[in-house]
Design brief:
alpha+beta, Multidrug efflux transporter AcrB TolC docking domain, DN and DC subdomains, Multidrug efflux transporter AcrB transmembrane fold, 2 domains, two-stranded antiparallel sheet, 12% strand
Amino acid sequence: YTPGKQQLNFTIKPEGQSLGLTAQEVARQVRNAFFGAEALRQQRGRSEIRVRVKFPKERRISEFDLEQLVIRTPAGVDVPLFEVVQVERGRSYTSITRREGRRTIMVTANVEPIEQSSQVIATVQKEILPQLAADFPGLGFSWEGRQADMRDSMQSLIAGFLVALGVIYAMLAVPFRSYIQPLIVMVAIPFGFVGATLGHMLMGYSLSVMSMMGIVALSGVVVNDSLILIDYANRVRREEGLSAFEAIHCAGVRRFRPVMLTTLTTFGGLSPMIFETSRQARFMIPMALSLGYGIVFATFVTLVLVPCLYMLLHDAHQNHKRFLAFLNS
């Protein structure tokens, strides 16, 4: 930070306001006295000469000359400058930046530790910024720098995640030949999000862009367990003629070990990165947390929830068939 040049700040007193003076009028008269008021412009060849009228040089060399300045009111009465304004010493701006025509000031801060950035930003947005906006009408604010980059990254991640969900649904709907069963398989995805969030809380990490990348990758991995159960249940119903309850029960019993082994081996492969303490690995740990804890939590929920949803879908289908038979009869 580099302080600007010293300057004198003028504030209109109530006495000056009662005389009809405004800040713009006082500033104009002070500027004309010391900087000069343009009287005329004269063209000399290719150059333009500006003629300004101002105080003589000997009356513009000290602050005492400013104290002797006389301001003319709208009524034509001359009053001393310091009788109608309050003077305070200050510093001028070294530079003035604007965005979309509005003056802006950049405020930066470094958070220690950096993992607490999200909590600090949430506190500032909830407690400090609303109070500033109430105290200073017309004040606006926006997050730039690293937060702007994170916002752009999150928007692209959300768009990519929606596209990935559509592709996953289409790839599941074709072999299942159903519009509903892919939704049962994909119901594990939200629970993967819950597991990823719990993993971050358990390990003391805050959600970051790398965490969201891990969650997007998790959406394609976490469906494997429910896919194994639904596919096996459909196959035994088709080949062995079992009922829906017997088929999903058989799938849960026979596929329990593969499901658990897949989950545990995945978490085991990610555990060295999750529990790594070196500084070089901290960048990738949030992604590993999302994948590892997300798939573990979603697996246990899948083993309970998917059979229930499978039976609900079967019951709804049977009730629909009975209703159509009733209408036809």
